[in-house]
Amino acid sequence: MRTVCVIGGSRYFGRHLVESLSATAEVTLLNRGSAPPPPGVRQLVADRNSASAMARALGDQTFDVVIDQVCYTPGQARIAREVFAGRTRRYVLTSTIEVYADLRHSGPVTEAAVDPLTLPVRPGLPEYAYGDGKRQAEAVLAQDPVFDLVSVRSAHVLGGQDFTGRLAHYKERIGQGRPVAVHADPKPACFINDREIAAVLEWAARADFTGAVNACSYGELDVHDLCEAIAAEVGRWPVYERGASPYSFDRYYAMDNGRAASLGFPFSNVHDWLRKAVACA
């Protein structure tokens, strides 16, 4: 049986990932212990910001693959590289569409737009914006490789028990008849649902390709599309005001999922699951 270590994995789509993996693999969770693991899953408690604490918790264990759900900075990536060098042959990093946040483009962006092998790593900064931290983490792991690396760049995730509350923000305001803040000319973005991104990560863990892959459902939505889907659910038409809100973007913000699709992942279409995601928010 394959052995898999998931760093984090205690909530949202990480929970789906762990539960699915445990059906066919021996799964170990390495996290803070804030929630109990699913049945049949072993849990090790350690601070991922401490290489020594992680090493003590792991002992002499090795794994076929590690899936890192909670690596947000280059410092955390350096710790992961130190701790898992010699412990695994394959490392799957959960990354994000926000690595492309500073780009301006008129069509779906491919993985080549952000190449971690050429990114300058800036040591010593105390804090990072989310997208920048993920870019830097990818660069640390890619530029000094000690295992095969895959970076799964996830689109904005909708559906299920979303602790961020972003979709719920829209649903609550529309349901109460309160205005939703949107840009004057909001642009489309791409999305993926909670079950599908968990499936992409599991697929990436089982495969043998390396490098970055974009993970998004087919189809694009702008904030008006989302609000109109919510309106159909709550029975009240949205009221808009000028401003910004979580899924209102002033730039085109979509990815090309062609690489992952060509490697064999069968993406859904966003319209196949949007109504269910709205109902669950």
Verbal overview:
The protein is an alpha/beta fold and 281 residues long. The chain has nine helices and eleven strands. The strands form three sheets. A seven-stranded parallel beta sheet has the order 3-2-1-4-5-6-10, sandwiched between helices. Helix 1 packs across helix 6, helix 2 packs parallel to helix 3 and helix 7 packs across helix 9. The radius of gyration is 19 Å and the shape is globular. The model has no long low-confidence stretch (mean pLDDT 94).
Q: In summary, what is this structure?
A:
The chain is of the alpha/beta class.
Helix % is 25-40%
Would you report the number of β strands? Answer: 11
**Which geometry do the CA atoms define?**
globular
Mean pLDDT: 94
- The whole-angstrom Rg is 19 Å
Beta-strand share of residues: 15-25%
Distance between the termini: 37 Å
Q: Count of DSSP helices?
A: 9
